[in-house]
Amino acid sequence: MIKKRLLASIVGGVLAGGLFVYTTLEKSEARETYMAYVKETYNEQADIELSRDWHMGGYIGEMTLTKEPFAGTYYLETYGDGSIHDNVLETYWEREAERTIHERLVSEGILKEEETVRAEVPTGVSDDAQAKVSPTPTSIYETNPKTYLDVSIMFHEDWNNTDEQKQRILDVIREIEPDVYWIHFSFDGKPGGNDDYTERYMMFTREASDIDPSFLDVRMIEDLNAYDRLYGFDETTFTTEYRFDGTPIEDETTR
């Protein structure tokens, strides 16, 4: 019995040691591959932090670039076909879109300086656009923003259901609709305020859906009144539908 236990311990130790060596080599190879990719693509010798990629297999890398215009921290991922993908261009384009759209809306007097624009470019746009990253990155506006760009506008004010507020929504839509496929409006009460359980938001899209109207569906304040729907968070139900005046829309099944 003692011999069997000793043998089992030895075998287990050998297997564990072999697994450790294999994992160390695998990790080292992943780091070297990512470092070579970063050097070739962005001409930087970046340190790579690795973590296990439980979804794709292998390792996800985190890198920090120091050279402009891409200075910042990004991730790297290896797909099943062995290709490496990162989120550098998507992040760069999001910053560009946020800056330019904010400047445009502020200059037109539609947004206040402290109000916020957030843009999102889905992962994979850089691959589809086949953008060169050197020496100058391709602008998001040189890809297909009508397909790829969605925008969130944070109005730092309570929703009081006024015509002035509704007109501001229409003004934003008209100003940026050529560049986006989806717009999400939020009203959080005050600059820097805590949005938890107080946020109200509404969405519009390039194409009409059963829930969200298209840009073309809302040309006048009367169109917004006909839509008459907000969404919000509260402490009990988390997600609630509201009318423009702030009253909840009751679930027909609970009546």
Task: Outline the secondary-structure elements.
Layout lengths: L1 H41 L5 E5 L6 E7 L6 E7 L5 E3 L1 H20 L8 E5 L4 H5 L15 H4 L1 E6 L7 H14 L5 E6 L12 E6 L15 H7 L2 E3 L7 E3 L13
Report on the structure:
With 255 residues, the protein is α+β, with helices and mostly antiparallel strands. The protein has 6 helices and 10 strands. The strands form 2 sheets. Strands 5-6-7-8-9-10 form a 6-stranded mixed β-sheet. A 4-stranded antiparallel β-sheet has the order 1-2-3-4. The longest helix is centred in the first third of the chain and has 41 residues, at 2-42.
Q: How many DSSP-defined strands?
A: 10
Beta-strand content estimate: 15-25%
Q: How far apart lie the N and C ends?
A: 71 Å
Within the largest sheet, what's the order of strands?
A: 5-6-7-8-9-10
Category by helix and strand content: alpha+beta
Average pLDDT: 81
Radius of gyration: 25 Å
Question: Based on CA inertia axes, which overall geometry fits?
Answer: elongated
Overall helicity:
25-40%
**Largest sheet at a glance?**
6 strands, mixed
Question: Which H/E pattern describes the elements?
Answer: HEEEEHEHHEHEEHEE
Q: Unreliable segments (pLDDT under 50, ≥5 consecutive)? A: 14-22
Give the count of helical stretches. Answer: 6
Keywords: Membrane, Transmembrane, Transmembrane helix
Transmembrane segments: 6-25
What's this model, at a glance?
By secondary structure, this protein is α+β, with helices and mostly antiparallel strands. 36% of the residues lie in helices and 20% in strands. The strands form two sheets. The chain has a six-stranded mixed β-sheet with strand order 5-6-7-8-9-10.
